[in-house]
Structure formats: structure tokens, C-alpha cells
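[Q] Does anyone have a clean C-alpha cell version of this?
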Amino acid sequence: MDRQEFDAIVFKAIETLPLEFRSKLENVDVLVEDWPSPQQISQLRLRNKAQLLGLYEGVPQTKRDSSYNLVLPDRITIFQKPIEMNCRSDKEIEDEIGRVVRHEIAHHFGIGDATLYKIERQKSK
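[A] Here you go.
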């Protein structure tokens, strides 16, 4: 899939979020990269760059206080190549992008991985 099409799916995944979440995405940039950087892989202690589908880097809204101002935007990066490696069709890619975008945005709102995995397991039952 070319980058322009992938970007459009990421944008669509954000635009289809409920307004109550979309309207509270403050000071967040969403980027698409082919692969995680060597620094990201090292920082997260990953064995394989294909393991990381998305990454939230920033200060979750639940950790912000009155001193949170004049800071660079938080960053959500969606990694195209690992997502494509894990999917067999364009439909699977689109579904996975939606899941990864929601997962990383949940981190922006202060929801941790353990809670997210529990929610995802319950949803798949």
C-alpha cells in the first residue's frame, strides 16, 4: 500500500472517533513512519522492529497539571511496515490501523496497556 493511501486510512480512523474524544485531542501530532527508529526500539527493549505497530510519546492528559504549557506536542506514530506485515488484505490493514490508532489515543487519555489489553480481550469474546 502506498503512503498516501495509508495516511488517508489513519486520518479516517481519527475522524471516525467519537466527538467526545476527538475534541479533546489537545497538543497531539499523529505521524506515519515506515519503521520505528533504532532509538525507539532500544528504549522499549524490543527484539524486533516489526513488533511495534504504534507508539504514544508524551504526557497523558491525566498527568497534566496547571504547569503544563508551552510544550512540544505529544506524538502518536503509526508504523506502516509492521502493520502491513501483520495483515493479509487491505481490509485487515484498515481494521488494524483503526485498532492501533484507538490504542495509542487511549494512552494520550491515560489508559495503560494492561487495561487496554483487558478491554481488547473482552471485546474479542
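[Q] Thanks! Anything notable?
[A] The mean pLDDT is 91.
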